[in-house]
């Protein structure tokens, strides 16, 4: 992993990856964001953390859900 992501960096990355502008990311978008932020998680870790972030279990995560999940791991300060 490289430097920890900031809230501003997270917002910018989220906006860039959320190409349809609906404010939601699927697992593929989540994976792209992790790569953009320099986070190196295995496929299993990525899937597990996506499911953790997806609080309402709709298969999508919002910026708030992503931010909360990363904060839970001490990231995106």
Automatic annotation (TrEMBL):
Q: Which superkingdom, per the lineage?
A: Bacteria
One GO molecular-function entry: calcium ion binding
Domain annotation EF-hand: ranges: 5-40, 41-76
Coiled-coil annotation reads none
InterPro entries in UniProt: EF-hand-dom_pair (IPR011992), EF_Hand_1_Ca_BS (IPR018247), EF_hand_dom (IPR002048)
Tell me the SUPFAM superfamilies matching this sequence.
EF-hand
Query: What's this protein's name?
Result: EF hand domain-containing protein
Q: Which organism does this record belong to?
A: Thermomonospora umbrina
């Amino acid at each position: 992993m490289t430097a920890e992501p900031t809230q501003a960096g997270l917002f910018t990355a989220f906006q860039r990856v959320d190409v349809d502008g609906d404010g939601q990311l699927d697992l593929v978008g989540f994976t792209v964001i992790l790569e953009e932020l320099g986070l190196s998680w295995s496929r299993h870790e990525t899937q597990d953390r996506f499911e953790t972030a997806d609080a309402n279990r709709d298969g999508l995560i919002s910026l708030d859900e992503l931010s909360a999940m990363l904060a839970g791991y001490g990231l995106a300060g």
